[in-house]
From TrEMBL:
Residue ranges of every copy of the Thiamin pyrophosphokinase thiamin-binding domain listed in the record: 154-214
Keywords tagged on the record: ATP-binding, Kinase, Nucleotide-binding, Transferase
InterPro entries: Thi_PPkinase, Thi_PPkinase-like_C, Thiamin_PyroPKinase_B1-bd, TPK, TPK_catalytic, TPK_catalytic_sf
GO molecular function: ATP binding; kinase activity; thiamine binding; thiamine diphosphokinase activity
EC number(s) per entry: 2.7.6.2
Domain of life according to the entry: Bacteria
Pfam families per record: Thi_PPkinase_C, TPK_catalytic
Listed GO biological process terms: thiamine diphosphate biosynthetic process; thiamine metabolic process
Name assigned to this protein: Thiamine diphosphokinase
Amino acid sequence: MIFFPSLTPETAPLFVILAKGEFPRKILPLAILRRASEHPEGTIVCCDGAIQNLLDYGAEPDAVVGDLDSFTASRHILPAEKLHRIDEQDTNDLTKTVTFSAETYSPREVCLLGTSGRREDHFVGNLAHLPGYTRFFEKIVMPTDYGCFLAFNGEARIEVERGRQISIFSFSGSAVTAEGLKWPLRNTTLPELWCGTLNEAVSDTIYLSSAAPLVVFVADEVKNR
């Protein structure tokens, strides 16, 4: 069973992929990014459209992936071996970077930052890709300004604070079992994406399982009890 501890800079994956959405602003994602940049085992792989923001923040990527059409002056201050051009246009930049990361580094778990903001359609596309990314990674953590998306395949145990608002997304429509929630699920089919939303943790641990990948949103909001 996959375990997701309560997200902190210390429990977050040290392998970070930075997308070209809005650069992190909240304390937690910034701390995760800083730790990945400073830790000897940390790795940052950056979509090419996000590189200037990362450099302005004061961190340097281990690799930059994309068609490199977003490069300006950034290109001249990074060694060539860090630049990885992928010209194909059949997938988005995040998927190019995810695939490169899986094939080059093979991390077991990954944190995706900068996936939301700027363009809502890009964010929806990034979100829809998460189930497919579980074939590369055992654990996917994707913090936003309002909470964190978790993606996995199979069974998971998630550490949460009681009262946290929880939403479960089954993109395949497969049956889901969920315990530790105000409205538990017992091998319940979720035919539409909205069907598993707006639940609430009534325990400090929730358990989920499904025959297909699941995406779970743990909101920062804690409902008054």
